[in-house]
Amino acid sequence: MAGNSQEYISHHLTNLTYGKLPAGYVRENEDGTTTELTEATWTFAHGGAEASAMGFNAVHVDSLGWSFGLGALIMFLFWRMAKKATTGVPSGFLNFVEMIVEFIDNTVKESFHGRSALVAPLALTIFTWVFMMNFMDLIPVDVLPTLAMAVGIDYMKVVPSTDVNVTLGMAIFVFALMIFYSIKIKGIGGFVAELTLQPFSAKNPVVQAIFIPVNFFLEIVALIAKPISLGLRLFGNMYAGEMIFILIALMFSAGIALGLMAGVLQWAWAVFHILVITLQAFIFMMLTIVYLSMAHEDH
Amino acid sequence: MNLNLTLIGQIITFGVFVWFCMKFVWPHLLTAMQEREKKIADGLDAANRAARDLELAQKEAADQLREAKEKAAEIIEQANKRANQIVDEAKDNARSEGERIVAAAQAEVEQEANRAKEALRKQVSELAVAGAAKILGKSVDASAHDELLDTLAKEL
């Protein structure tokens, strides 16, 4: 059982990876024999070991596929509603979409004091997309991987936001926007000044010169910490949630009594998780707005 | 847990979605919502204005009604007064006419009585003269005793 559960868990935590195996890598075949690759090959990884051997030259097909698919779905829905939106009486799903748009518009107006055509749509994209990606967590953990197995796909991790690549990717995009707007609004000089002339400053130029490296170190740490915390917060929350779902799912195979308890736990955790996924989507959006607002502030 | 090309892929995907949202989704929705908001605000304004107009019109109508009632009451009062006046006038006329008729009749009666008295007086004086003539045995010269006779007639 122990070995099985370990396998079960690690199977659930392995991405469907397509990448480049280096030349000379020894692959294990299913029948136990091994094949040595004579040259670097692009292929699907059979298991976590091969996936780590691929290094950076690999793509998590499932994460990227689900995240793109969900994003495209939500964008399509919103786009259709945007075309349907008129000054007349809104109805049905359009009401719901407008409710979200209004909520985000208000949030952005409250927290972001500059003028920007980007921030509000960015916030909308983040909120809806992250919510959709997190929402995949509420689908029982075995359903989609089992279906994938049935059509011959060995690994399927369906919650894109439990993939650190996905969350950090989004955080890095936000970081790039922060840098872009900092330089655009304050100029390179202003941005550098912001990084070097605070929090410590002095009238005496010599003392100021001593302060500059200290300031720069502090500010650069603070700056880098923003995207990393942004990405890792979402990743950590979703990963932990997913992990608990997997552990609960393990109990289903351990007899009727534990199975029933697992059912109750699964339900309770899912209900709680509805709060978590919404909250995490909101936090990601809110922090993005705040960071961009800080980038727009001219001292 | 490996960092790999997925990161780059996600950045690109994110960028594309944000661009799409910024270009095709957000402006349309927001414009429609803002326009609708304005429309609703205008509609509410118009409704308020109409309600105020209605109130004013009702007040005006009530005023006019009250005025009309007052005027009608006034007219009726005047008419009543006039009617009373006419009746009074008629009464006065009748009374004075009656008085006049009574006075005329009385005057006539008096005249008649005076005339009768005169005639009587004349006859008495004639009788007196005749009586006196008989007593004296000769005729009395009427013209010679005119003065005496008149005094006598007056004393009667």
Automatic annotation (TrEMBL), chain A:
GO-annotated cellular components: plasma membrane; proton-transporting ATP synthase complex
Cell location: Cell membrane; Membrane
Residues passing through the membrane, by range: 64-82, 112-132, 168-185, 205-224, 244-265, 271-292
One BP annotation, GO: proton motive force-driven plasma membrane ATP synthesis
Principal place of residence: membrane
Topology in the lipid bilayer: Multi-pass membrane protein
Top-level taxon of origin: Bacteria
CDD domains in the record: ATP-synt_Fo_a_6
Keywords, comma-separated and alphabetical: ATP synthesis, Cell membrane, CF(0), Hydrogen ion transport, Ion transport, Membrane, Transmembrane, Transmembrane helix, Transport
PROSITE patterns given in the database record: ATPASE_A
GO MF term list: proton-transporting ATP synthase activity, rotational mechanism
NCBIfam families, A to Z: ATP_synt_6_or_A, PRK05815.1-1
Similarity-based family: Belongs to the ATPase A chain family.
Job of this protein: Key component of the proton channel; it plays a direct role in the translocation of protons across the membrane.
Protein name, as recorded: ATP synthase subunit a
Source species of the chain: Thalassolituus maritimus
Gene name as annotated: atpB
From TrEMBL, chain B:
The keyword tRNA-binding is assigned to this record: no
The keyword Lipid metabolism appears for this protein: no
Sorted UniProt keywords: ATP synthesis, Cell inner membrane, Cell membrane, CF(0), Coiled coil, Hydrogen ion transport, Ion transport, Membrane, Transmembrane, Transmembrane helix, Transport
GO CC terms, sorted: endomembrane system; plasma membrane; proton-transporting ATP synthase complex
Membrane-spanning parts: 6-26
InterPro entries in the cross-refs: ATP_synth_B-like_membr_sf, ATP_synth_b/b'su_bac/chlpt, ATP_synth_F0_bsu_bac, ATP_synthase_B_chain
Residue ranges the record marks as coiled coil: 44-130
GO molecular function terms attached to this record: proton-transporting ATP synthase activity, rotational mechanism; proton-transporting ATPase activity, rotational mechanism
Membrane topology: Single-pass membrane protein
Localization per Swiss-Prot or TrEMBL: Cell membrane; Endomembrane system
Domain of life from the UniProt record: Bacteria
Family: Belongs to the ATPase B chain family.
Its job: F(1)F(0) ATP synthase produces ATP from ADP in the presence of a proton or sodium gradient. F-type ATPases consist of two structural domains, F(1) containing the extramembraneous catalytic core and F(0) containing the membrane proton channel, linked together by a central stalk and a peripheral stalk. During catalysis, ATP synthesis in the catalytic domain of F(1) is coupled via a rotary mechanism of the central stalk subunits to proton translocation.
Matching HAMAP family: ATP_synth_b_bprime
Complex formation: F-type ATPases have 2 components, F(1) - the catalytic core - and F(0) - the membrane proton channel. F(1) has five subunits: alpha(3), beta(3), gamma(1), delta(1), epsilon(1). F(0) has three main subunits: a(1), b(2) and c(10-14). The alpha and beta chains form an alternating ring which encloses part of the gamma chain. F(1) is attached to F(0) by a central stalk formed by the gamma and epsilon chains, while a peripheral stalk is formed by the delta and b chains. F-type ATPases have 2 components, F(1) - the catalytic core - and F(0) - the membrane proton channel. F(1) has five subunits: alpha(3), beta(3), gamma(1), delta(1), epsilon(1). F(0) has four main subunits: a(1), b(2) and c(10-14). The alpha and beta chains form an alternating ring which encloses part of the gamma chain. F(1) is attached to F(0) by a central stalk formed by the gamma and epsilon chains, while a peripheral stalk is formed by the delta and b chains.
Name of protein: ATP synthase subunit b
Lineage: Bacteria, Pseudomonadati, Pseudomonadota, Gammaproteobacteria, Oceanospirillales
